[in-house]
């Protein structure tokens, strides 16, 4: 499925100007139909999956309890 730049910006929660600059820099594949650029939505799936994976890993890391320091209980 192809999306316009506006729809892509909404899909990725990014500003339209940023998407346009990525298209102009050829960092995002796009097709120009004479009036507007069309972007293939599935090219972003891997990126979005990796972002979700990183969010889960960060949440797990932050929810992990801090271990007690061995030296704190050591009274010489």
TrEMBL record:
Keyword annotations: DNA-binding
UniProt-listed InterPro entries: HTH_17 (IPR041657), SinI_DNA-bd (IPR010093)
Helix-turn-helix domain location: 2-50
Listed GO MF terms: DNA binding
Key word Transcription regulation present: no
Protein name per the record: Excisionase family DNA-binding protein
């Amino acid at each position: 499925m192809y999306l316009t730049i506006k729809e892509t910006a909404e899909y990725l929660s990014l500003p339209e100007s940023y998407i346009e600059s990525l298209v102009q820099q050829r960092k995002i594949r796009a097709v120009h139909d004479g009036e507007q650029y069309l972007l293939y939505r599935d090219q972003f799936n891997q990126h979005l999956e990796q972002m979700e994976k990183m969010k889960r890993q960060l949440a797990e890391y932050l929810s992990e309890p801090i271990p007690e320091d061995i030296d704190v209980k050591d009274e010489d």
